[in-house]
Amino acid sequence: MCCCGKPTINGQPGYSWEGKSFSICPVNPPPLMDGDVLLYDEPGRCGGIDSHSHHYRVVLNGAMTLLRVRHGGGDEEVRMSLCDEQVKVLAQLDSNGRYWILNALYHAFSQNGHACANAENERWRQAAAEKRIKVRKLRGQDRVRVWIEPKKENQHA
């Protein structure tokens, strides 16, 4: 929960984690990589919700537009399917609007990734419980093939 009292951007005075003492929350951007051209740099902030821990950078690297994110769990990168016209739409937003759109895109991506991973983990757990995971060593190689056998007609879900 944010206790700033008013919307505050990291690097500006007004940050408070307990509502009594006020300071400046440091700016902590994700690093730029070789070939990155920085398009937008949006430090963490609050305003309705506390997002001080998320710093977003939109970069162009070759033909790819990337969203680089730094948060309490580390750094992440999301490949964005943006063409020139869509990048121009981001330019039309003020910093606050751009930050909250990037925040929504990142969280949608992140939640979808977690949901997919959870579904796949559950599929493998169920297959293990039903003893449908098969492993075969590949002849003449130091590798194995692993797969899930389909359920038989008489197996229940």
Folded structure, characterized:
The protein contains 2 helices and 10 strands. With 157 residues, it is α+β, with helices and mostly antiparallel strands. It has one domain. The strands form 4 sheets. A 4-stranded antiparallel β-sheet has the order 3-6-7-8, with helices on one face. Strands 1-2 form a two-stranded antiparallel sheet. Strands 4-5 form a two-stranded antiparallel sheet. The longest helix is centred in the C-terminal third of the chain and has 35 residues, at 95-129. The model has no long low-confidence stretch (mean pLDDT 90).
Give a summary of the structure in a few sentences:
The protein has helices spanning 84-92, 95-129; strands spanning 13-15, 23-24, 36-42, 45-46, 50-51, 55-61, 64-71, 74-80, 133-137, 144-148. It has 157 residues and is of the alpha+beta class. It has one domain (13-148).
Unreliable stretches, pLDDT < 50, 5 or more residues? none
Structural class: alpha+beta
Largest sheet: 4 strands, antiparallel
Instruction: Estimate the global geometry from the Cα principal axes.
Output: elongated
Strand order of the largest sheet: 3-6-7-8
DSSP summary: helix tally: 2
Summarize model confidence as the mean pLDDT: 90
Q: Which strand-content bin applies to the residues? A: 25-35%
Q: Compute the number of strand runs.
A: 10
Order of helices and strands: EEEEEEEEHHEE
**C-alpha termini separation:** 42 Å
Task: Domain count, please report it.
Answer: 1
Helix content: 25-40%
Radius of gyration: 22 Å
